């Protein structure tokens, strides 16, 4: 809560906590409602539009980003969220600490608009050159 109050952006997106959204918030020792601007909650994609590009991403993120701790989605429950339903079944069989990149169908893809480093050419000395694409 202290972090959100200092960051400001969290409150602007998630909304200012109230007894309706966070039962018991007024009894927290450092909660000073008179110091907060009252904000209404917004859709997460209004702050982070890329959440709208991936199916179920905004819904999953909103389940994690809850001011009231008891409303937050646990990591264990998140694994069953529809966001992860399209992952290759082999990922669920990987031993702990194994790389997901050992699964042949898993590849790293850049997001649109992000810059990419492409190493595809070699110069006269046999060294790879990189071209930056945006």
From TrEMBL:
It comes from Cirrhinus molitorella. InterPro entries: Kinase-like_dom_sf. This is Cyclin-dependent kinase 14. Residues 112-134 are annotated as: Disordered. It comes from the Eukaryota.
């Amino acid at each position: 809560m202290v972090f959100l109050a200092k960051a400001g952006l969290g409150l602007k997106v998630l909304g200012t906590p109230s007894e309706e959204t966070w039962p018991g918030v007024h009894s927290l020792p450092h909660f000073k409602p008179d110091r907060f601007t009252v904000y209404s909650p917004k859709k997460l994609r209004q702050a982070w539009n890329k959440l709208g590009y991936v199916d179920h991403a905004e819904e999953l993120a909103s389940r994690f980003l809850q001011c009231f701790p008891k409303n937050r989605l646990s990591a264990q429950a998140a694994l069953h969220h529809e966001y992860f339903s399209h992952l290759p079944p082999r990922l669920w069989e990987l031993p702990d600490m194994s790389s997901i990149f050992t699964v042949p169908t898993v590849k790293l893809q850049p997001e649109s608009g992000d810059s990419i480093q492409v190493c595809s050419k070699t110069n006269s000395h046999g060294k790879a050159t990189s071209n930056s694409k945006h």
